[in-house]
Amino acid sequence: MISSEAIVVGAGPAGAACAFELRQRSIQTLVLDRFSFPRHKVCAGWITPRVLDLLDLTPGRYPHAMTRFDRLLFHLWGATLAVKTCQYAIRRYEFDPWMIARAKVPVHTHRVETITREKGGYTIDDTYCCRYLIGAGGTHCPVRRTFFSSSHPRSGQALVAAVEAEYPCDCPDRRCHIWFFHDSLPGYAWYLPKAGGYLNIGIGGKLARLRKQGRTIMDHWRRFIETLCLQGLIRSMPPAPRGHTYYLRQPSSGGRIDNAVVIGDAAGLSTLDMGEGIFAAITSGIAAAGAISNHTPLSFYRMPRFSLPAMIFQPWHWK
Ligand SMILES: Cc1cc2nc3c(=O)[nH]c(=O)nc-3n(C[C@H](O)[C@H](O)[C@H](O)COP(=O)(O)OP(=O)(O)OC[C@H]3O[C@@H](n4cnc5c(N)ncnc54)[C@H](O)[C@@H]3O)c2cc1C
After folding, report:
1. How many angstroms does the Cα of residue 80 sit away from the middle of ligand 1?
2. 40: CA distance to ligand 1 center in Å?
3. Alpha helices (H) in 113-173, listed in sequence order
4. In this model, does residue 316 exceed pLDDT 60?
5. 318 exposure class (CB count in 10 Å sphere: 0-12, 13-18, 19+)
6. Residue 57 C-alpha to ligand 1 middle, in angstroms?
7. Predicted TM-score (pTM) of this structure
8. Residues ≥6 apart with Cβ < 8 Å to 60
9. Hey, whose CA ends up nearest to atom 9 of ligand 1?
């Protein structure tokens, strides 16, 4: 049996931020992830200045390419609005390994299946045991499934289906475009050129409303690609997209039960307007480490529910 004071299930931004903070607080920590890194994560990789602040990071200190956008082009019902802002983009393929390496804790490649609570601690797959258990395994986190699903039920209304493709591309337009309700999509679509010669394009929408429309996210994807071609934003067909589902912020999100916590997508913390989840993942990871070390409850009620206000009204970042 491999024992550690704390075990974090999932090495995405939530798990990596929590592991970093736990180590800072001298709590022995081990991270388990079903994949070895680097691994692909379905995500646009847009991050706000708030994320850089949380990580005490500047673009110059980040070892990979980081894109900065000083303007966003919002498209809504045929109108285009250029909004002055300061936003960044990274590639999750690079960002996640950097985050977990920064934590400086052991990481084992292990897919967690069964967790039991015994003798005041937790046993994972008869192989690992710990006193504190952190569920950072994303939408299908086994910690959430085992300990939180009945006390913190998730609403199907908050479930988002999203697809994206990130690929090397000589982008005809270096600006970031965002389309709201494109072709009645119950969500938004994006065109995000990245430093280093990559393009990330994708769409996301509420699954319940897609079902009501009788359309799938792939129906919307095909219409979106047609629009990108027509507008000359892409010159050839992109590779097949990858898909993922996740939950937007809900009233019952998050929390702690005994010495188990859930954070990030496992707690369903993405913002209600833009589905921004990286900031929430990192914030909740840091908060969870504090709750564990201070023996306090874990609450997410102060975390922002919306992204747009901070994206549009942030003059202190207009440098
Ligand atoms: C298409 C799309 C685009 C998005 N774009 C953005 C964006 O631009 N900006 C933004 O802020 N947010 C975005 N999001 C949301 C963002 O990706 C998530 O909110 C964020 O990744 C959550 O981080 P996390 O650490 O909680 O979970 P994840 O990043 O999902 O990490 C969970 C980790 O747990 C591991 N794991 C899962 N199950 C197990 C298991 N059984 N055993 C062991 N390990 C396991 C996984 O391998 C994974 O590494 C997007 C989401 C989608 C789907």
Report:
1. 30
2. 10
3. 142-143
4. no
5. exposed
6. 21
7. 0.96
8. none
9. 46
Residue 315 has pLDDT above 70, yes or no: no
CATH superfamily for domain 157-245: D-Amino Acid Oxidase, subunit A, domain 2 (3.30.9.10)
The superfamily (CATH) of domain 2-67+88-153+247-313 is FAD/NAD(P)-binding domain (3.50.50.60)
Query: Are residues 159 and 206 in contact, defined by beta-carbon separation less than 8 angstroms?
Result: yes
pLDDT band at 118 (very low <50, low <70, confident <90, very high): confident
Concatenating the DSSP letter of every residue in 179-228 gives EESGGG-SEEEEEEEETTTEEEEEEEEEHHHHHHHT--HHHHHHHHHHHH
Report CA(258)–ligand 1 centroid distance (Å): 25
- 114 SS3 class: coil
- Does the C-beta of 136 come closer than 6 Å to ligand 1? yes
Cis preceding linkage at 13, omega within 30: no
Looking at the CA of residue 162, tell me the nearest atom of ligand 1.
1
pLDDT over 90 at 175, yes or no: yes
Average predicted confidence (pLDDT) for the chain: 94
The two three-digit tokens of residue 196, written as one number: 């280093």
Q: Where are the domains of the chain?
A: 2-67+88-153+247-313, 157-245
Please tell me if the CB atom of residue 97 comes closer than 6 angstroms to any atom of ligand 1. Answer: no
Quickly count: other Cβ atoms within 10 Å of residue 63's Cβ.
Answer: 8
d(CA 217, CA 188): 11
Residue in this structure with the two tokens 């929408």, named with its chain if needed: 205
